[in-house]
Design the sequence.
């Protein structure tokens, strides 16, 4: 059993500090900045054993250098980003089984947001660290990959068990909820979920993590192949790739 601590960074980033108390191993996922991580570790008198990156963007790796300097941690990162992330000790690729905080973890390559993006899935802990591929009611912008790649990546994540808790990279949930309601206005469960989200945000609580099973029915970006959703968006196509691309572009300009 692990303890997952949520650390806020910048204006809307989430850093995840994972503690395996039994094995005395501490890992951090996507430390965009080092200061909040070091402060948290010092308050608990923990050593940082592992740094894990989902992709090369600075707001996810910006704290690497200082943390490596202070703690001499092991750095785990995608092989696809080996030229863009410095000092990697363990290169990981699609379907690799690795250990994070002493827990068996599957690497899932999810190109789209970036070409090298990976997510980390702990089956025994029923949790997924999705970086910038999947957000609550949303998905990442397609910067380096293609729309088809992003849709395929989301299908990989959607195939995980319903009871998976998804820990994502940014607090974009409020804006994602507005777009989801706009594009899928007749989704009753979505409306109920948006009320829950508003209540959380009003009292300053993070909306991470969310449960994947419920998300499959309310996140428009996971529903591009759903017949009811296809009918409701009324596009001149039934092709899921084209529908996903169309709604992602709508979100970009929303």
Sequence:
């Amino acid at each position: 059993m692990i303890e997952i601590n949520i650390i806020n960074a910048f204006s809307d980033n989430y850093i995840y500090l994972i503690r395996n108390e039994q094995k005395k191993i501490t890992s951090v996922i996507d430390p965009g900045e080092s200061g909040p991580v070091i402060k948290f570790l010092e308050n608990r008198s923990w050593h940082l054993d592992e740094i894990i990156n989902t992709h090369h963007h600075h707001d996810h790796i910006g704290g690497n250098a200082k943390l490596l300097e202070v703690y001499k941690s092991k750095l785990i990162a995608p092989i696809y980003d080996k030229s863009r992330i410095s000092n990697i000790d363990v290169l990981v690729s699609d379907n690799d089984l690795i250990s994070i905080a002493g827990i068996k973890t599957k690497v899932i390559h999810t190109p789209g947001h970036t070409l090298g993006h990976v997510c980390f899935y702990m089956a025994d802990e029923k949790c997924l660290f999705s970086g910038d591929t999947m957000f609550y009611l949303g998905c990442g912008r397609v910067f380096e990959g293609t729309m088809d790649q992003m849709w395929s990546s989301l299908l990989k994540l959607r195939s995980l068990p319903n009871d998976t808790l998804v820990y994502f990279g940014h607090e974009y949930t409020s804006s994602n909820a507005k777009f989801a309601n706009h594009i899928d206005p007749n989704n009753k469960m979505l409306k109920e979920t948006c009320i829950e989200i508003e209540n959380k945000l009003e009292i300053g609580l993070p909306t991470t993590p969310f449960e994947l099973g419920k998300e499959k029915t309310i996140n428009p970006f996971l529903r591009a192949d759903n017949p009811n959703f296809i009918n409701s968006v009324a596009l001149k196509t039934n092709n899921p790739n084209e529908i996903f691309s169309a709604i992602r572009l709508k979100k970009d300009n929303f």
